[in-house]
Design goal:
Blueprint (H helix, E strand, L loop, with lengths): L2 H21 L4 E3 L5 E2 L12 E3 L5 E3 L7 E7 L4 H17 L4 E8 L2 H11 L5 E4 L1 H8 L5 E3 L2 E5 L5 E6 L4 H15 L5 H8 L3
Parallel strand pairs: 1-8, 5-6, 6-7
Antiparallel strand pairs: 2-10, 3-4, 5-9, 9-10
Helix pairs in contact: 5-6
Length: 199
């Protein structure tokens, strides 16, 4: 590559990163994070927000309260997101009538999301937006946000775990074993947070 062209390309890339950083405030965003716990800020309860579904109708996140919730932030261009969706779909099919709600929130263009969902056959609720969905993810108080980004919420609305990166079957099984104990009263949210931290 021509040295001048290489220098211009690098400058444009750095400017784009700076602009994105400015737009997102102090949060750090990454398209695909590693499997680590997000550092939770002061947010301990599910924040209230609304986003449009794939038909353009506004949906309140609180409408699924009373269930254990898995809120999964994703995008069509995120390979780890796409890989974990069949697992989430399988869990949805097995447990949708047993107190578990999975809600996908696409940080993406609604038309791209609609096309992707039509291809994959995902049936759990999907909400979509670009800036709105990013703002919703910010409400959970993580210092670092990557995609996929998953939030586990108790039926009471208490946030139990923020999870960055692709969820694998063994991780999800271990997390759900603990969230089930919270749901049936065998464990408090504080106890669950402690046990979920290393998972």
């Amino acid at each position: 590559m021509n040295p001048l062209l290489k220098k211009i390309s690098l400058t444009v890339f750095l400017l784009a990163v700076l602009v994105l950083g400015y737009l997102m405030g102090t949060k750090t965003w990454s398209p695909a994070g590693s499997e680590i716990a997000a550092t939770a800020g002061e947010v301990s309860m599910l924040p209230e927000f609304s986003l449009p579904d794939l038909n353009g109708k506004s949906q309140r996140i609180g409408q699924w309260s009373g269930n254990t919730m898995i809120i999964n932030f994703w995008a069509t261009w995120c390979a780890p997101c796409r890989r974990e969706m069949p697992l989430l779909q399988k869990v949805h099919e097995a447990r949708k009538d047993h107190g578990l709600a999975i809600i996908g929130i696409a940080i993406d263009r609604p038309d791209a999301v609609q096309a992707f969902i039509a291809e994959t056959g995902v049936t759990y609720p999907i909400l979509a937006g670009e800036e709105q969905a990013m703002a919703a993810a910010d409400l959970f108080g993580a210092d670092f946000v990557a995609l996929p980004f998953t939030v586990f919420v108790a039926p009471s609305g208490e946030i139990l775990r923020l999870y960055l990166g692709e969820i694998h079957p063994e991780n999800l099984e271990a997390i759900l074993a603990i969230t089930d104990q919270v749901a049936d009263g065998r464990m408090t949210a504080a106890q669950a947070r402690e046990q979920l931290a290393p998972l």
